[in-house]
Amino acid sequence: MADDLKELLFRLCAARGTPGDETAAAEAAAKELAPYGGTVKDALGNVSAAFGPENAEGNLLLEAHLDQIGLVVTSVDGNGFLRVDKCGGADPRVLPGSAVTVKGKKALSGIVCCTPPHLSDGKDDEVIPVGKSFVDIGLSKEKAEELVSPGDRITFSTKPVSLAGSRVSSAGLDNRAGAAALVRCAQMLYKTGLKRRVTVLLSTREETGGQGASTGAFSAEPSEAICVDVGFACQPGVPPEKSHPLGGGPMVGFAPVLNRRISENLVKTAVKNNIPYKRDVMGGSTGTNSDNIAVVRSGVPTGMVSIPLRYMHTPAEVIDLRDIENTALLIAEYIKGDF
Amino acid sequence: MHSFDMLRKLCLADGVSGDEDTVRNIILDEITPFADKIEISPLGNIIAFKSGGKRAPVKLMLSAHMDEVGFIITHITDGGLLKFDTVGGIDRRILPGKPVLLSGGVQGVIGVKPIHLLKKGEEGKSVPLDELYIDIGALSREEAEKYVVLASTAAFVSSFDTSHGMIKSKALDDRAGCAILVDIIKSDLKYDMVFVFTVQEEAGLNGAKTAANHVRPEAAVVVECTTAADVPGSENAVCRLGGGAAVSFMDRRTIYDKEYFKEAFAAAKAAKVKCQPKTAVAGGNDAGAIHACGSGVRTAAVSVPCRYIHSPAGMISQKDFLSAEKVVTGLAERIAGGHA
Question: pTM for this one?
Fold first, then answer.
């Protein structure tokens, strides 16, 4: 199982998709969901699959965002270097010296410019803002302009790798981990004699505002929703009240915008089925698509499950496969539990 | 057309200073059939003698270093994270979020606090070195100890990309120099020459110093990769990608032999390849140890210009690599033949 899940996750990670340009990621995800009720793409590029009785009273929406942070080309300078800006919450501290892939007319390998230590300017405690960073694709201005246009997207080139135990690292685990959990969940639920209609929505543009989740939820008209995203795993410098251990199980969200009944029922499901879990408590908004989905149409009772992840928004995000599997299992059992 | 297969093999191998065995073995496998005599010095340098058509009037040593910058594990935390020291000059700003490979083949990443949780005063600031660590996915010290021991080394991870006439990879400094020397040793030489592949350049030129002591050359040509800072925001270009081999007159460690400096340009002209002076007194290389060895060694440095040197992804021009190879070959012949 763990190997299958890892392969699924790596396939999803390998297909890149930045906000507003999720086509490759969407196609890869749609392929995974094809056996579970077909897939549809809407105006904003969302992927969805619906299964279970069509005339059922309740319709449960399971949502995970499909996009990942990246950079966007803003212009080509006189020497062929690409000026860039954020596409989602890119972290300027991890950019210098990073290998990147520019999605121009074809995929181009590039490097985010950095100053060598031999010429150190004495400013090494300062970080260059994303908007003042450059990407070098090793081409002249003319050749670069032929292959790259403003608006083209850039992603980290890091490949998914296995770490110790059941941990893996990749760029874009935020939120391919969530997408993988929902694909797994669909695998577990499909053909189990569901009483409710279930819609799996893999939404676009979360990293730039969550427009995909809003429109996708509008179309699905759910009576209830559960969002799956990544959350902060424990690591040095991260306060314990804002994080949960890697491998410690899914984090069940509690926040004003989240429906407390759903949250408590998720906890009951975890306890009943011996699934490790953590209560993840937030005083304000959740910073996830839950905030958007809960206020779609007349309002949707919404729950949230987060998968602990280290180094969010870097090329080297780290996750524990067991947490993905347990997230899928928790949601599948919750649905079967008929609350 | 040059295949760059040897350079690929050398760059993708890991050899952090003091841990160069893998790189040394690759080079030994490649050059052994072509050298007349090979010695491994006590510190691990390869010293290869090759006879040419004629005895050399001037005893010439060509050198390139095998090691690369990287990391060494100094401590394992209770939570299974690895604290490290940098080996060689690495700007700490390039470290967060980069994948690394530990000796023994264990994958890791350099962890950093998520940008979402930065406190006031941390925004816009680079991460202090003592807050960084390598995460191999171990959840406890006991688990980490199954994969690493203290003093394990770690290197950057990269691909080797040859698109658009460039080469993008880690460790081009100085596997490019090693690959050039491997090519030359495989060719027919006009004069006898000594080729050395040194250890520990990035950690204090220890290999070069002892190699020169051992060989006692009269002249030396150091083949390197040097900083090309022809990039936005850099006031001092040093040398340019596409401008051909870069020849040094002076850097932070060495004042180079004036005649050899001129002769390098003559060799470039004769070979009809581009050549450029390194236009900044910056950096330093094995020449620093070699030129002041014994009674003194007349020394030149010919480099392949490299952007983003000492980072996970450097970039050189294929044409510059080939120019450097021609310049080194021509210059070596002139020096060994007593014509310079």
Answer: 0.91
Do the beta carbons of residue A164 and residue B143 sit within 8 Å? yes
pLDDT value at residue A58: 87
pLDDT digits (tens, 9 = 90+) for A126-155: 899 999 999 999 999 999 999 999 999 999
Say yes or no: A246 and A261 in one domain.
yes
E-state strands within chain A = 40-41, 47-51, 59-65, 70-76, 82-87, 99-103, 107-112, 134-136, 153-156, 161-162, 167-170, 197-203, 224-232, 251-254, 278-281, 302-310, 317-320
Rounding to the nearest 10 degrees, give the CA dihedral for residues B229, B232, B234, B238: 30
B68, B201, B218, B224: the catalytic one is B201
Q: Would you call B201 a catalytic residue per the annotation? A: yes
Q: Domain boundary residue among A97, A130, A156?
A: A156
Task: Give domain limits for chain B.
Answer: 5-68+170-336, 70-156
| Nearest-Cα residue of chain B relative to residue A316 | B97
Residues B240-267: tens digit of each pLDDT: 999 999 999 999 999 999 999 999 999 9
Task: Provide, as residue numbers in chain A, all residues whose Cβ is less than 8 Å from the Cβ of B140.
Answer: none
Query: The domain B5-68+170-336 belongs to what CATH superfamily?
Result: Zn peptidases (3.40.630.10)
Tokens at residue A189, please? 């639920």
The two counts, helices (H) then strands (E), for chain B are 8, 16
Query: Which of A116, A164, A314 is facing B97, going by the closest CB pair?
Result: A314
Indicate if the pLDDT at residue A71 is higher than 80. yes
B313 touches chain A (CB under 8 A): yes
Of residues A75, A80, A71, A77, the one with CA closest to residue A138: A80
Angle between helices A321-336 and A260-272 in degrees, nearest 10? 110
Q: Could you tell me which CATH number the domain at B70-156 has?
A: 2.40.30.40
pLDDT (tens digit, 9 = 90+) per residue, B123-137?
Answer: 889 999 999 999 999
Judge if A238 and A313 occupy the same domain: yes
Our CA-based measurement puts residue A23 at a distance from the nearest CA of chain B, in whole angstroms, of 25
Q: Give the integer Cα–Cα distance in Å for A65 and A204.
A: 6
Instruction: Compute the distance between CA of residue B321 and CA of residue B325 in angstroms, rounded to an integer.
Output: 6
* Whether residue A97 sits in one domain with residue A48: no
